[in-house]
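so im writing up the methods section and need the S-adenosyl-L-methionine-dependent methyltransferase record in one place, dumping it here so i stop losing it
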Amino acid sequence: MASSFTPKQAIEFDGALLKELQGDVSDKIALTLLKELGLSRMLSSSVIHDNGCGYGAVTMAVMAAEPPAGVQIHATDINEMYLAELKAALAKNPTWPVKVETMDACALTFPDNTFDLSVATFVFAGLTDDVAAASHVRRTLKPGGTGVIAVWKDMPWHAALENAHHKIRGSDEPMAPFLSMTRYKKNEVAKDAEAGGWSPDELEFVEKAEWLNLGPDLKRWATIAWSFLAKPAGGWQQRDEDRWDEAVDSIVEELGQGAWHKVEDGVHKIRMVADVAIMRKQG
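--- predicted struct ---
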């Protein structure tokens, strides 16, 4: 049975803090991809799926790209906390053509051949059935439609948290579940896409890099990250509270020393690189 103990330093999970943790790096990559895919040239009847939408990075990117009138966006996720953040943003933009639904990416209920474009940015690492999800992307795309699956290639913050885990828990203890999930990489995407019905000639990969804003206080960001991402499989233990500062200080030190780190206008940033699968349905 998992422990109910929580270190006194741990921050309680909520959507706003999660957004602070993630920054706008996903939004930037989504916007770049959409522009390169020719969003501005899309027909007014285009239907777009923000698949595993989270707080709506893809939806926001679509709207920031000023799509033609008539575009429709369906944003789906199973996490109600994420969806609440997106719905709050949409309440401020009531004219946006967005429909939000609670839906599992592994079991989409949309009819076949629904979407012109389906975008899943940094979603597949946390799914229960990646093959089913890849299959549903293909099924729900129209012939000639485009699917996008983005996963992280380089995440310097991830290595910093893993090293802190080993430092305070030892090398023999299993990695915290979330940190294990985020190891999903390009090779897994290609394998799962093929198993899900995509042929190799429908698939190509591109790399995209952007800077993640960590804010002016690295220790605050590290504390949020350790609270949200580093909970052990068996639950927090007293040693996590006793060595909390040691873990956070280790993350801060590693993040601040890497070649992928910079400070601009007092804001700490780290460079992150994504592998992006561009999938074009041929039939």
